[in-house]
Prior knowledge:
Helices cover 31% and strands 27% of the residues. The chain is of the alpha/beta class. Helix 3 packs across helix 4. The longest helix has 15 residues. Bound molecules: zinc ion. Zinc ion (ZN) binds next to helix 9.
Amino acid sequence: MPASTCPACKNTHTAPLxxxxxxxxxxxxxxxxxxxxxxxxxxxxxxxxxxxxxxQDYHKSRQYQAKLHSKIKxxxxxxxxxxxxxxxxxxxxxxxxxxxxxxxxxxxxxxxxGIDVDADGIAAATAKFPDCSFEAIxxxxxxxxxxRFDFIYCSEVIEHLSRVDDFLQGLxxxxxxxxxxxxxxxxxxxCSLSKNFKALVTWDSVRPPEHLLYFSxxxxxxxxxxxxxxxxxxxxxxxxxxxxxxxKA
Length: 249
Ligand SMILES: [Zn+2]
């Protein structure tokens, strides 16, 4: 079987994720590992139809209704830490779910907008935060309109995507030269996690087909660079979460 192409760096120095010569799987899904950048990912990727069917039953927005207040508080803290000198401007949350980060940004003085492809989440967000603007649209379609934002927030989204390049190019297209993008995703390279693949896939962030891509600093960097973006800085995290500030290349 030919090696797959790494979604992050486009290298083909990839191989099935194995432990002691046996392929490692979780919930019936197998993974490939990129020897160039360190990304591991679901391989083969589920089809668009399979992913669509999965998300029909996902009810993510309901799950996220819980602990809304503490989520707003955490988002406020993250937005403030990323914007020490700047507290105004146009804010966009990509994959905003029920809108807690959008509400947080508005309370800090931003003109705040949230987008999500999940129409149920957008309906819930609109009802909950009527002072903010929400739209059920993907970043690629948003980018086609030519709008630009000063601060873009994208938390726990990129690991869900089967087509990461289209998404990152969409993000780059809504940024100007001074825009900041704050992104979070699970950190498969975190020092607290096992380097043994069999043990690593027991990590609760390994959730195929919900999570398809498992980044580390190097692999996220590779994906960003190929799509017109660059890391400004990785923020330290005690938990296995990448928190990164990104600018246009
Ligand atoms: Zn790679």
